[in-house]
Design a protein that fits this description.
This protein has 123 residues and is mainly α. It is 63% helix and 0% strand. The chain starts with a helix and ends in a 10-residue tail after the last helix.
């Protein structure tokens, strides 16, 4: 699956780069890699790290999920999450919350209060 995803991501990268009329060299300079590295990304030879993916998304002016769109496993997980089958690691969320400073916790709480949760009837 990893190889398939690397090829998928590479195709999406190439499509966007060409749509913007950019060279591999220009994209490479923008994210501080060689044009050969961009070639390897586009061919799916090399995987893209998360920080590089973020840099590419910012430079190419696309949301990061652009690179995941149309990938079968991504679509399956989107459907599962809509159905509520996605496993959430609450311990991880609690740990993240505990690491917030006071101002961040206040902002977080205000944002949580603005989220509308659908109420479903049981039985």
């Amino acid at each position: 699956m990893e190889d398939n995803f690397n090829k998928h991501l590479g195709n999406k990268l190439k499509l966007r780069r060409l749509a913007l009329g950019l060279t591999q060299t220009k994209v490479a300079k923008a994210i501080n890699v060689t044009f050969q590295q961009i070639q390897k990304y586009e061919k799916g030879t090399n995987g893209v790290s998360s920080i590089r993916l973020l840099q590419l998304a910012n430079y190419l002016k696309v949301p990061i999920n652009y690179f995941f769109e149309d990938f079968p496993d991504y679509a399956i997980n989107i459907e599962k999450s809509k159905e509520g089958h996605m496993n959430i690691n609450y311990n991880f969320l609690v740990k993240l919350y505990s690491e917030l400073n006071s101002d961040q916790k206040i902002k977080f709480s205000k944002n949580i209060q603005n989220i509308e949760v659908p109420i479903t009837k049981v039985g």
